[in-house]
Amino acid sequence: MSTPTTRLAPSPTGALHLGNARTFMINWALARQQGQRVAMRIEDLDGPRVKTNADKLAIEDLRWLGIDWDTQPLYQRHDLTPYAQAFARLHAQRLIYPCSCTRSEVRAAQSAPHGDEHELRYPGTCRPSSDTTATHPPAMGVPGGQTDPAAWRVVVPDESIVFTDELQGPQTINVQQQVGDFVVATKDSLPAYQLAVVVDDARQGVTHVVRGDDLIRSTGRQLWLYRMLELGPIPQYLHLPLVLGEDGRRLAKRHGDTRLATYRQQGVDPTRVIGLLARWCGLLDHHAAMTADEFRRSFTLDKLPRQAVTFTRQDHAWLIGKP
Ligand code: GLU
Predict the structure, then answer these.
(1) Do both 115 and 64 map to the same domain?
(2) More confident of the two residues 81 and 117
(3) Distance 284 CA to ligand 1 centre (A)
(4) Which helix (H) or strand (E) holds 129?
(5) Is the entire prediction scored with pTM above 0.85?
(6) 42 in ligand 1 pocket by Cβ < 6 Å?
(7) 105 in a domain, yes or no?
(8) pLDDT digits (tens, 9 = 90+) for 159-195
(9) Would the CB of 242 count as within 6 Å of ligand 1?
(10) Residue 211 beta carbon below 6 angstroms from any ligand 1 atom
């Protein structure tokens, strides 16, 4: 039996905001309550979007909140070999093909798909009618190594994948109907998010994944890759409702500066932030401070609202100590 393990997987594409903080806090509290190992992973494959020092800032923000972990941070870019091996394995099974469509969706494949925009279904334009193994895949991590740069897609069958989300119950996803053949390597010869996350969850021994429910759609793709790469056992998934701005959209820059680093620089005490997160988790019915330790002890999924929660002006005023 493998050690129960979860992971914290920040993307260093910007500073962590209050919505990220809530997800990480719940992930950590559940892990510590259940005696899981907590692995740290910096998801720095997101090419041009990665910002200098955002990894260090994310680590400082998490520590400031009182979150800890049990491994050295795994930086995806440090070694692309595990992704190349998985890619080669898909190739050997004749499951991938090059795609030269220049859709923005192909460019977006390096990031976890959090956007509000609906992902389009790829209609299979470049899917070959017969053997794909004649085309040699590029060496992973050698940008420009291809004479005719192409992204690589994986052939997905028209069948349903079933799993049970720990919070949201039974889910059925037909990946072919949902997004079609999806991208596993980008034109820059880097692993796409969907491939990288599966390879990493498997090699870090992850048994429990906790993340925002904007990624629940991705779980079908990830479970399918687990199966094709024979990487089992698969983790248990728990997808959390998101934190929204007052306009009903996913909390983001457009809602003002909700970065943890900004509150930290303004001298806001972390117990205020944790108290707000606790309120969003149904642990408090008013604004009050709370320590990480209190949060860890009192958090329970039973109290967690099943709907998205809203970050209000009053919440912000409370954080910065205004009446
Ligand atoms: N690194 C991703 C993010 O910060 C998380 C991906 C995942 O949990 O699967 O959005």
Answers:
(1) no
(2) 81
(3) 27
(4) none
(5) yes
(6) no
(7) yes
(8) 999 999 999 999 999 999 999 999 999 888 899 999 9
(9) no
(10) yes
